[in-house]
């Protein structure tokens, strides 16, 4: 006969074991997804693929907004000091006349100045804008790799050419492919939520990806795709000539810094790469998954704010 006390003890032990196993799975998950993800190392070709049985590209949140969810609308940013001009609003990109794949078009875009179809804000207003637009025109029908066959839109980037900061992500996901704009899905919303309170709304900067086209099923970029697409990113950076580059996640950090080190070793400090300084941090998709990584992302992006304020203070003295 088991006493009530014994039964209670057994129940508690089982509960503790369940909690322990859950926490280990979460840890494993976070490690797999965030820290030491295999490098897109040219010498380790198999490393960039998602492990067998894993659902696609791991930096993407697995359960993003469902297909056909309303198009991206930016989080309203608070007022801050570093703004250099009126904040434009952009309209969601409808694509060449077609509704998003898998659903009806979202609600009508808010009224406001029209964002250029390239994603560049007011490209004609500066020499850099014009040069960036010329690059867009050159690559918008790129057929440099097999992703052309499966993409809906080439996602060039979004934001201002005249900016001190460029954010670089990994590759478009489903929402981005549908709308032709970077970071308009769950990861992008999270990024806006982190940047907003820091007074760094994204429409003052430029944001793009290493890969301009979506890998099917959000799988990891392949080495060949990275090699084919990186020159477009480097050309964007050459034109914009930002002071700072924020590399979001393993692929961006390794690509911009030309390293194979894991993001866990790179993040949270400034690195020099040619003419600009690079701040690697976790991918916002990671921060969608755990509060721990969201806090790290917030802390890392606060370093960007410090730099911008420091730069502002220096240039105004
Ligand atoms: N993840 C990325 O790396 N880039 C995007 O544009 C969207 C999600």
Task: Describe the secondary structure blueprint for this structure.
Blueprint (H helix, E strand, L loop, with lengths): L3 H32 L91 H13 L7 H4 L7 E2 L5 E5 L4 H6 L6 H10 L10 E4 L13 H18 L3 E5 L1 H8 L5 H4 L4 E3 L2 E6 L2 H6 L1 H26 L1
Parallel strand pairs: 2-3, 2-4, 4-6
Antiparallel strand pairs: 1-3, 5-6
Helix pairs in contact: 2-6
Bound molecules: uracil.
Uracil binds next to loops.
Give a brief description.
This protein is an alpha/beta fold and 317 residues long.
Key terms for this structure?
6 strands; alpha/beta; single chain; six-stranded mixed β-sheet; 10 helices; 317 residues
Describe the structure.
- This protein has 317 residues and is an alpha/beta fold.
- It has a domain at 36-58 and 119-316: Uracil-DNA glycosylase-like domain (Uracil-DNA Glycosylase, subunit E), CATH 3.40.470.
- Helix content is 40%, strand content 8%.
- The chain has helices at 4-35, 127-139, 147-150, 174-179, 186-195, 223-240, 250-257, 263-266, 284-289, 291-316; strands at residues 158-159, 165-169, 206-209, 244-248, 271-273, 276-281.
- Strands 1-3-2-4-6-5 form a six-stranded mixed sheet, with helices on both faces.
- A hairpin with a 2-residue loop joins β5 (271-273) and β6 (276-281).
- α2 (127-139) runs antiparallel to α6 (223-240).
- 41% of the residues are buried.
- Mean pLDDT is 77; it is low at 22-69 and 75-113.
- Uracil binds next to loops.
């Amino acid at each position: 006969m088991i006493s009530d006390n014994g039964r209670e003890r057994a129940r508690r032990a089982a509960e503790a074991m369940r909690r322990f196993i859950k926490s280990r799975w979460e840890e494993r998950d976070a490690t797999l997804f965030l820290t030491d993800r295999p490098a897109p190392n040219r010498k380790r070709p198999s490393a960039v693929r998602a492990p067998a049985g894993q659902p696609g590209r791991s930096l993407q949140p697995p359960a993003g907004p469902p297909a056909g969810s309303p198009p991206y609308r930016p989080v309203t940013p608070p007022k801050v000091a570093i703004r250099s001009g009126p904040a434009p609003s952009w309209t969601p990109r409808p694509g060449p006349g077609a509704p998003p794949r898998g659903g009806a078009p979202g609600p009508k875009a808010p009224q406001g100045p029209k964002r250029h179809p390239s994603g560049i804000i007011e490209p004609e207003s500066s020499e850099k804008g014009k040069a960036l637009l010329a690059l867009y025109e050159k690559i918008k029908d790129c057929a440099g790799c097999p992703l052309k066959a499966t993409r809906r839109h080439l996602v060039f980037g979004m934001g201002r050419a005249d900016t001190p900061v460029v954010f670089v992500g990994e590759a478009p996901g489903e929402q981005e492919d549908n709308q032709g704009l970077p970071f308009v899905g769950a990861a992008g919303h999270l990024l806006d939520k982190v940047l907003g309170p820091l007074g760094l709304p994204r429409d003052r900067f430029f944001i793009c990806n290493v890969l301009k086209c979506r890998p099917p099923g959000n799988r990891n970029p392949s080495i060949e795709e990275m090699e084919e697409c990186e020159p477009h990113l480097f050309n964007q950076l050459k034109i914009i000539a930002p002071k700072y580059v924020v590399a979001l996640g393993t692929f961006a950090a390794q690509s911009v810094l030309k390293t194979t080190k894991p993001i866990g070793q790179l993040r949270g400090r400034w690195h020099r790469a040619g003419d600009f300084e690079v701040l690697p941090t976790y991918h916002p998709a990671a921060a969608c998954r755990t509060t721990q990584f969201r806090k790290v992302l917030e802390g890392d992006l606060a370093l960007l704010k410090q730099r911008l304020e420091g730069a502002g203070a220096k240039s105004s003295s």
